[in-house]
Amino acid sequence: MSYAIYPSLKGRPVVITGGGSGIGAEMVGAFARQGARVHFIDVSESDARQVQGALAAEGLHACFRQCDLRDLDAVGTVFAGIVDDAGPIEVLVNNAGNDDRHQVDAVTPCYWDDRIAVNLRHQFFCAQLVAASMRTIGRGVILNMGSASWHVAVPNLSVYMTAKAVLKGSRADWRATWVAMAYGSTASCLAPCGPPARRNSGRHLRAKRSCSRANAFLSASNRSTWRAWRCSSPRTTQRAAQGASISSMRGTSAHEHDPTCLHMAAERRAWGRAALA
């Protein structure tokens, strides 16, 4: 899998939760290949060490921090340590979660609270911690990993889908809130989806997309590049796969000729074709 190179990500402190396996591990590798200073958090040390070993074989490095994200005191300690080691955090990828299957009639209050703590609560408090860092430098990106499961009502996943629906629904408020708390920062939500047969290859695409979205905001001298990148709805992606240009999707504007925007448009067409293949 090849990756576009985004120079603006080089040297940026990036924190990824749940980076020891699955989509999170792909994101750790994707940001490390961009030259970012990656710190990833996971509860499983064995999985995380495997990720570090695979990256070391490529000559890459990522710093692992073990933490149970349900323990908010421990979370605060970990983030303070990252800031001490790497400086203000510029990118947070809130990825950690667990789609544990369950029967609705078997859900207890304790189980509910635990699943919400695993899939929703830490995302807010991790964002709260990095907002303090972003305020000192006037920029930053918070990417929350959502899910398409609640759109299609996956069986035996009620609590998980509730958490992810809340996360998606609060996106606009998060953007307004984090911009107010740390001017120049933004928050967004990515929703992994797709049939199981494509899920492994889809991890690579979502890792690439997270790097592209972070780069688009951090590298923009103004918000025009960011606005251009946000041509990301399923309808827009499908039209891009069919060769439509940014101008035909969003109307002609000054930023459509920006090289960064054109590069991202080309990537989006490639991703769209892959998704429709």
Order of strands in the sheet with the most strands? 3-2-1-4-5-6
pLDDT averaged over residues? 75
Helix fraction, binned, reads 55-70%
Number of strands: 6
Extract low-pLDDT stretches.
194-201, 220-264, 271-277
CATH topology annotation of the largest domain: Rossmann fold
Give the radius of gyration: 18 Å
- Describe the main β-sheet briefly: 6 strands, parallel
Distance between the ends: 16 Å
The CATH homologous superfamily of the largest domain is called NAD(P)-binding Rossmann-like Domain
Number of helices: 12
Give a short synopsis of this structure.
The chain is α/β, with parallel strands linked by helices and about 280 residues long. About 55% of the residues lie in helices and about 10% in strands.
What does the model show?
- This protein is an alpha/beta fold and about 280 residues long.
- It folds into 2 domains: about 5-195 and about 210-220, NAD(P)-binding Rossmann-like Domain (Rossmann fold), CATH 3.40.50.720; about 220-275, no CATH class.
- The protein is built from 12 helices and 6 strands.
- It has helices at about 20-35, 45-55, 70-85, 110-135, 150, 160-170, 170-180, 200-220, 225-230, 235-240, 245-250, 260-275; strands spanning about 15, 35-40, 65, 90-95, 140-145, 185-190.
- It has a 6-stranded parallel β-sheet, with helices on both faces.
- Strand 1 (about 15), helix 1 and strand 2 (about 35-40) form a beta-alpha-beta unit.
- The two termini are about 15 Å apart.
